[in-house]
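Typical record was shown:
=====
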Amino acid sequence: LFLFLWNAPPETTAKLPHDKYHERFMNMGKKAAEQFCDDCHGKGKIYPLPKDHPPKYRCLFCHKQEK
């Protein structure tokens, strides 16, 4: 298991941006914060996800919050 993890490629997925739009989600629990993602990133919203984006079940599993 250690060798598998050691040889894993580096993370390439963008982290949750630390900007004025996402600031309120930085100290919120992942599941609580994810309830708001669709408000801006849903279809027809201000910043929708690209068509080739994987299904959005757990946004912050991939797009991690900065510490």
